[in-house]
Amino acid sequence: MSLRLMKKVFHLFISIIILSAVALSIPVSLRISKGFPEQHKKWLDEDVVYIITPKEREVFLQLDSDKERDLFIEAFWKHRDPTPGTPENEFKEEHYRRINHANRMFGWGEPKPGWKTDRGKIYIILGEPHSIDRYEEVKQVANTEVWFYQGESGYGLPNAFNVVFFQRDRIGGYDLYSPVTDGPQSLIIGYFGDQSATTAARRSAYTKLYQLAPGLAHVSLSLIPSEAPTDFSPSFFSEVLLSNITQLPHKKVEDIWAEKLLRYRDIVEVEYSANYIDNDSLVRVIQDKSGIFFVHYAVEPKRLTLDSYQDNYYTSLEINANITDFEGNTIFQFEKTVPFNFSKDQLDDIKTRLFSFQDMFPLVEGNYKFNLLIKNTVSKEFTSVEKTISIPESSSLQMSPLLIGYRMKNISSQGNIRPFQIGDFKLYSSPRNDFLPDDVLYVFLQIYGLDADLKKDGSLEMTFYKEEEKFLSVSKSLDDIENTGLVLEEFSLAEFPPAIYEIKVSFFDKDKKEVLFERDHFYITPTGSMPRPWIRSVTIPSADNPIYSYLLGEQLLNKKEVKRALIFLEKAYRANPISLQFAFGFSKALYALQEYKRIKDVLLPFLGAEEKTYEFLALLGKASQALQEYEEAISYYTEYITHFGTNLSILNSIGECYFRMGNKEEALEVWQKSLEINPNQEKIKEIIESVKKDEN
Q: Can you list the domains of the chain with their CATH numbers?
């Protein structure tokens, strides 16, 4: 097979794949959406069939209720609104204008409504053409329309191109013309020439069409005016163009919002659910010199909406974090509210810059999923971050992912620590790893489990690659790094031309064998300036604060590592024995280890406290019950119910205590009351029947 023929076969093969994929994308939703209410089926299969992305369609089909689907539709248009601050949605208005135009103009003589026709589809996607050339009633030429578009460059479209529709043998509707699959012979009525795909056959058909309609002949081989096909070959790039036109609406929208709506539909309030904002985020784990691992994170939403009163501008962010293991068990979660207030002068200074929210929290070793939800209470917008986190065991030899920064600043800690703080310095990083030519690049990493021999004989190599070619390599001995395995290097970018770079940091043992390595990418922009974000950092107590022993102990307790949890929780309690929070955490570990007497020793001093939690009273009751101190247990349980309302578990425990005391009548009365609240308690029913049978 000749090279020329191989190229033609390849082009045709690729075209078939592209066109087949496009052709198959719509019918799937048409089949799946049959069970929907009519208004939602029409919206999906008719109104937005050409502009909804595959991900959006997939999410819409997973929604369970009309309310969820209505919220989705609201969000769908909102994420396409070019002016979100105004009541009008120009995109939506223009889209429905195009549908109405297509139905009015392209349905004549067609067996289907105008929006379903090829002309209707292209019009809905691209809008009004710049001009239309019509070939109607031209001798031996199929009725043909050539739509010319200009100024549509971007998203894979050339600056100028044609879209052709023709009426085969002047019968039926107008079909979209393809230079590859149709060819010039299809534009000639009653053409009986050679129908093969040979060069001679195409030349013959082209020549005939040129004699009948010269202006149509060139378009028959290429839809791109600037392209000059050779050997009368149909244009492969015209096929790519047709595919790109179909995919154009998908490329103009970031559809991650749909995935977020589906993920958070059960935990985000209705007024937030249609208002997802995308973000850039950065999450890194840094081991403090105390040995505690902290998760540092930065989130940069695409916008921060503020409200105003007089000359003050304000909002409040609600932060909700949830860390689970890979089985879905919650290991740690926290909530906090962060208020923002600005004067007009402050707002003028920051309004053209991104906003970066930064925070940190301690975490015990293990592999986790980190889900962060941030809600703007003023605008009812939300954004989220989902990452996997790995906290290594200190004894295992590992290298942390690289953290690349553009600035270091000496900070006065005043007993507190801040996100991305390394010693007495804060490292400023961008989630996009973007740099200016006059920046300094800081590279931070940690090597865990580094013993004395490895530290003495090992070495690091930092290698920079510019567009996959080695640009710079620097070696470093490990003798002078801290015992925590902390490595921080800086590089002037003055000699780095603007480009995309990769940095690889390798750790070699004494035999020069690569044991560990990490990679990351960054790019240097040729622009002269780049507005860095303004940062809101949440400061937290220094690592010697007992709150961290408590938090780590709670996490270990959630991991069912009770004995290790006890060590941390007791340490927190001993450091501050008047803290009810610490005492209660310690007592939970004691309960898991069945040390009921110690629980009472720890918790009883807090019995007279004004603020007691329901958990505190319940645990005292359980400990007393386990010690067979039933009257005392009943008193704690009763106080619980008096302050915090009926709880079936507590109510059933009271019945159990009465029963153990021999007071079956009181026990039956309590259990009967429990059944009145919830009749679906089979175990309680069995106990009642058993007690009544014994009495008889």
A: 277-541 (2.60.40.1930), 546-695 (1.25.40.10)
